[in-house]
Amino acid sequence: MSDILATTGLKRSFIQGGETIEVLRGIDLHVGPGEIVALLGPSGSGKSTLLQAVGLLEGGFEGSIRINGQEAARLDNDGRTTLRRDALGFVYQFHHLLPDFNAEENVVLPQLIHGADNPAAHARAQALLTSLGLGHRLSHRPSQLSGGEQQRVAVARALANRPALVLADEPTGNLDEHTADIVLAEFLRLVREEGSAALVATHNERLAAKMDRVVRLHEGVLE
Fold this sequence. Notes:
Blueprint: E1 5-16, E2 19-31, E3 36-40, H1 47-54, E4 62-67, E5 70-71, H2 77-87, E6 88-91, H3 103-114, H4 118-131, H5 147-159, E7 165-169, H6 177-194, E8 197-202, H7 205-208, E9 213-218, E10 221-222
Parallel strand pairs: 3-8, 3-9, 6-7, 7-8
Antiparallel strand pairs: 1-2, 1-4, 4-5, 9-10
Helix pairs in contact: 3-4, 3-5, 5-6
Family: Belongs to the ABC transporter superfamily. Macrolide exporter (TC 3.A.1.122) family.
Pfam family, one: ABC_tran
GO molecular function: ATP binding; ATP hydrolysis activity; transmembrane transporter activity
């Protein structure tokens, strides 16, 4: 089976103070079906920029990005939006949950946008959140949840539409070590159960070692 994600010669540069700053300098990266890959590197190494590129969140990149066999460069804005909606899930360092919606509603909403019917979306949200130990917290708003609980809801939301690839940017970076271990274990378990692939950016060697494979990004180059 072909790769879920494949980048070739991926580059990104910025103009800063009249100088060209090369953030990504020719990235060749492959993530296979169901594979969980740690993207390891220090702050400023380009991890977030790489995730923004493969997440189709902004333009200005050179090179090839193929997701589920589709070349993103050949798609117009609507096509990239559709591919992002249908194939990708996102988890960030900060949960970015909608504060006026409870845990269940935060996981239901992306499914409704995707076209699911209301009963199926609620059933899926309840199943995911219960699997993450939040079955008793479905009606709680983000402000009523702990940091670890908020991030579990964010994980459920990312997986709600059964994405082929989950992109996670320091998903436990805002948590204490003990809570980070618990949330990461739950994230990895659920991703594997759902059969998704994942690319997880982290600066933590210990957490990276728990994933299937580690690639290292240093000064815009994979080592």
